[in-house]
Specification:
By secondary structure, the protein is an alpha+beta fold. Helices cover 25% and strands 36% of the residues. Strand 5 and strand 6 form a beta hairpin. It binds zinc ion (ZN). Zinc ion binds next to loops. The site of zinc ion (ZN) has 4 residues, from loops.
Length: 139
């Protein structure tokens, strides 16, 4: 069995961003040379998510509106976590809802998606260098 590891780095301009990373994961898969197996992609930070859904601008805005209703960034004093001096209490909660990782089957050298599935890195506390891990196992 082969195994392959790669980090994808991000530095978003705004606090929250939703980035389609499907092509970058596909490139990692090509680099790995693995044709059959499993591909894990996870955010390496507790204030960012990796999830799978449709690449559609209305939906991305709907996610952001929904997450802001669930856990608004302001007022930052609303979160006990921010008593530590941080201002990202909301980002921890948003990450919990959107999840840490995805696993995609690798079949015939490609990501074996259902219709419209794309992989996203969701940033909830950006404007600094952060990363996601791609781990692929198989043969
Ligand atoms: Zn924090």
């Amino acid at each position: 069995m082969k195994s392959f590891r790669k980090e994808l780095w991000f530095e978003t301009k705004s606090r929250r961003e939703y980035i389609n990373i499907t092509q970058r994961v596909r490139e990692a898969l090509r680099e790995s040379g693995i044709r059959e197996g499993l591909c894990l992609v996870n955010a390496m930070h507790i204030t960012a998510s990796v999830y799978i859904n449709d690449d559609e601008s209305g939906l991305i805005q709907d996610y952001d509106d929904w997450l802001e209703k669930l856990a608004p960034h302001e007022p930052t004093s609303h979160y006990r976590h921010n008593r530590t001096g941080e201002d990202n209490g909301d980002a921890h909660l948003k990450r919990q809802v959107m999840g840490r990782q995805v696993v995609v089957a690798v079949t015939d050298g490609d990501l074996d998606f259902g219709p419209w599935e794309q992989i996203f890195y969701a940033e909830f506390d950006g404007r600094r260098r952060k990363r996601a891990l791609v781990k692929i196992i198989g043969e």
